[in-house]
Specification:
By secondary structure, the protein is α+β, with helices and mostly antiparallel strands. The protein is 39% helix and 18% strand. It is globular and about 50 Å long.
Length: 339
């Protein structure tokens, strides 16, 4: 009986871990050590096998604390997701802390794509905005691309949502307006840059700069195809626009990021993901299926300005969404000022 209960606990923990990833969170295996106790090693073995089968997180094998990646020493794992694993690292000479993301082994790049990728990274490194995490460096480790970003204190909105510790509504809306302005800044680059993975786990809160959008790891230059996941679509399904979910990469524009920020706001207002427990295939089918009517966020009056902002962002047809992230930022600031 004890063995059956232990196996059941491990299976539940594995299922919860993978579902959290599908919802766009970045769970750490260490979060389960205390609750699983002696079963934690079996949980890690099961997680490693699941990661191998899914092509997620496999790149973290061998990337433990003390590993040298380029000019950096890994110190701890901060989180993981479909596109890779993020570590806190230190520059081997200066000792400065950075966030280093090793991209997933299941992301494909041929020689031409790799060269184009390097050019895009050079562009991204020149982008500076107070509400964007700065990209500092780029390299390869054991054949896998990695990014180096500035390391900021604070917690992600996904963490704060999970612990019911989100900031008051007015502050939340004002912070997301800052993020929308950062997105507009990206979109106005030459050529335009799209983020493509706006979600609660990629927005940090509590740092000196307020809310900051992180992880340009799968950002792309508008109209340029470069990095793809084997047989899949890059991004986090619960937050991607219908056009991104359909795989129409050349159709993407700023309104896709507007949709993602609207989906993020909808989840934050409801206090949970809109699609709890649904797998990637089911979510993709839902996003790419027949047009549907999106209900207002829980607890928000359908006639309120805030509800109208959210529903406009989540419009099926991008022509019905705010045309720019700057327009969305203005709408969020007006909503944050309403008592």
């Amino acid at each position: 009986m004890e063995d059956e209960e232990r196996i059941l606990r491990i299976e539940r923990a594995l299922e919860e871990f993978q579902q959290r990833r599908l919802r766009g969170e970045c769970p750490s295996p260490g979060e389960y050590a205390a609750t699983l106790g002696n079963a934690y090693r079996e949980f890690l073995a099961g997680l490693d096998e699941a990661s191998r089968l899914l092509g997620i997180g496999a790149e973290s094998r061998g990337a433990e604390a003390g590993t040298r990646v380029g000019d950096y020493l890994l110190r701890e794992t901060l989180g993981s997701g479909a596109s890779g694993v993020v570590h806190r690292a230190e520059h081997s000479k200066t000792g400065a802390s950075v966030a280093l993301k090793i991209l997933s082994a299941s992301l494909e790049m041929d020689a031409r794509a790799a060269e184009r990728f390097r050019r895009e990274v050079a562009v991204a490194r020149s982008v500076r905005h107070p509400h964007l995490v700065a990209l500092l460096d780029y390299g390869e480790w054991r054949g896998l691309p990695y990014f180096v970003m500035e390391y900021l204190s604070g917690r992600s909105l996904a963490d704060l949502m999970r612990t019911c510790n989100l900031p008051p509504l007015a502050r939340l809306l004002a912070g997301l307006a800052d993020v929308a302005e950062a997105l507009h800044f990206l979109h106005c680059q030459t050529p335009p840059t799209l983020h493509r993975d706006v979600k609660p786990s990629n927005i940090l809160y509590g740092a000196d700069r307020g809310m900051v959008l992180s992880d340009l790891g799968i950002a792309r230059l508008s109209g340029v195809s470069r990095l793809s996941r084997t047989g899949e679509i890059l991004g986090t399904v619960g937050y991607m626009s219908p056009e991104q979910a359909s795989g129409r990469g050349t159709d993407l524009d700023a309104r896709g990021d507007v949709y993602s920020l609207g989906a993020t706001l909808c989840d934050l207002l409801g206090g949970h993901a809109r699609f709890p427990g649904l797998g990637r295939t089911t979510l993709l089918a839902s996003l790419c299926g027949k047009p549907r009517r999106t209900p207002p966020p829980p607890g928000v009056s359908a006639s309120s300005d805030l509800a109208r902002v959210v529903l406009a962002c989540l419009a099926e047809r991008r022509e019905e969404r705010p045309a720019t992230a700057a327009i969305l930022a203005d709408a969020l600031r007006r909503a944050s000022a309403v008592p």
